[in-house]
Amino acid sequence: MNKMLDLLKKGFDLSRNINLTIKGYILTGMIWALLATILGLVNELQLMALLPLPDLLDYGHLRPVYTLLLIFGSLLSFFFAGSYWILQKETGAILLAPAGWVGFKLHQTALIVGVVFILLDANKGREYGELFWIADNLMALALVLFLVTSVTAIKMAGKSGVVLTSIVVTAAGALVIYLVGNVNLPYSALGSVSPARGMQDAALQEAYRTGVLVYFILMPAFTLLYFFIPAYYKVGIFSESLFRFQVLAIIVLVPLAAGAGLVYSAAPEGLQTLGIVAGMALAVAIMAGGLNLHYSLTRSGKRFQSDALGLLIRFSLFFLIVASVLRIVLAPRFVQAALGFTWLNPRDIAFDAQTYVLMIMLAGGLYMFQKINEHTLSARNLKLIAGLAIAGIALMFVANIGHGAIQAVERSATASNGDLAVQEWSKIVYAGSFAQQEHEPTAANPAAAEEADKEPAGIVARYMLSLRGVYFTGNVLIALAVLLAVLTFLIRASRSGKGYTEPDLTAANT
Fold it and tell me: Does position 454 have pLDDT exceeding 60, yes or no?
């Protein structure tokens, strides 16, 4: 039996070629990240200006393409690359390495087919990767192959640990939530009518959105961090018990937290309250994971001086914790009543994906590239990438928090007679604008200012000369950081390696 098993290993163990799969995922992760950030800029421009684009490229088409390439393209590619690299380091040989390569091809094919059918109006989904059924099934098969390959490698090696558990939980959760949200509920190849209608369908949508946030955005980032920080800084995880609490809480709370998205809807009030409590608990679990990683550095008994990649990771981790705190603060019913329709609303999970999570994955991808190809990337380029990214994320956070707070004040202000002081939603959208109205209303033409502000030039001016302009600037900085990272990667990948030296980040105690 042992001889047959050894023969099977020799016949199928192509782990020496698993690096090809890893490199492919890093490359596609970079490309999808660049395309997604460019589309993010185009989406922002479409919100503030009448771009002369055909109907095929309007906001309704490009927004789902943007989220598809960002979350299911870039982030998932980086997660697969990092996971295979970690599995190779932790378990040695990967028995089903060919399955990983097949999964890579299926994954990339699903993305391309998905984009084509979105542009052809053939997808039946809404925003986050709900694709035409062919692409749905290809994506699901890629997830299945990755999960089978990972579990097989871990079982054959008889290994366990924080990062290996994180890989399996993330992959299994992603597969389940993807099947629930795409293959059969609500859509399948057999029909286009959702079997879950009305409030059930709304609850399903919220469960899917919450699941995508956790299993396709946050947990992939945690997986890379649970390996990257100990490997890069030569420290252990602060508390494995806290990690186990985080994983258990996530598994239990994701389906329940969906009810938080049904607040002020026709859903039963008990379900709404349960969702609010579960959503707050889920945010606490995410924050606990971030603090666990933060404490791994601050309470290790050592002092560190981070290089560019280290700074990018640590600042992104800080923003992850801030985002979790915001979700806790914004969860109560009365807070949602004030901020539910403002820029501070945390339901746009693409914001998390494009800011701190993308930077975590990008830093992990660059680190893996240096290790695999024996390259040392330019320290100057890495510092510029980190500086642009950190500044961009900070501007986007500040813009959303500030603008949301101003909007909440404007929409709740009342006149002396008790009516709302602001009656027009357009004024709330541009609340806090730095631009002054150039056309004051007169008795002869009381609508002069309003009509002028509806002109394209007036709309762009009010948009850019407001906190949305600050947000757009942050978006531009992140796009530049990604562009520089991709160029650095491509230029260095075309050259022969000259060796990679691990940085010594331990500072002398004072």
Answer: no
Q: Is 499 helix (H, G, I), strand (E, B) or coil?
A: coil
Instruction: List the beta bridge partners of residue 191.
Output: 188
Residues whose CB falls within 8 Å of the CB of residue 33, separated by 6 or more in sequence, listed in order: 70, 73, 74, 358, 361, 362, 482, 485, 486
Q: Which residues contact 6 (CB under 8 A, 6 or more apart)?
A: none
Q: Does 346 sit behind a cis peptide bond, omega within 30 degrees of 0 on the bond before it?
A: no
> How large is the average pLDDT for residues 117-141?
80
| Domain 9-430+466-496 belongs in CATH node 1.10.1370.30 | no
Two structure tokens written together for 332: 């109560």
Euclidean distance between CA atoms 70 and 40, whole angstroms = 9
Predicted model pTM:
0.88
The secondary structure of 182-247, three-state, reads HHCCCCECCECCCCCCHHHHHHHHHHHHHHHHHHHHHHHHHHHHHHHHHHHHCCCCCCHHHHHHHH
Provide the 3-class DSSP secondary structure of residue 303. strand
Please give the single-letter amino acid code of residue 328: I
What's the CA gap between 117 and 501, in Å, rounded?
45
In DSSP terms, 299 is beta-bridged to none
Can you tell me the distance from the alpha carbon of 235 to that of 256, in angstroms, rounded to the nearest whole number?
35
Do 179 and 120 touch, CB atoms closer than 8 A? no
| Each residue's pLDDT tens digit, 200-244 | 667 778 888 899 999 999 999 999 999 998 888 888 889 999 999
Structural domain boundaries in the chain: 9-430+466-496
Cβ atoms 97, 381 nearer than 8 A: no
What is the DSSP secondary-structure string of 32-90?
HHHHHHHHHHHHHHHHHS-----GGGSHHHHHHHHHIIIIIIIIHHHHHHHHHHHHHHH
Nearest to 130 by CA among 220, 201, 31: 201
Mutual angle of helices 59-67 and 18-48, in 10-degree steps: 150
Kindly state the helix (H) or strand (E) to which residue 507 belongs, with its residue range.
strand 506-507
Cα separation values, 327 from 7, 276, 355, 395, 403, Å: 53, 10, 16, 19, 16
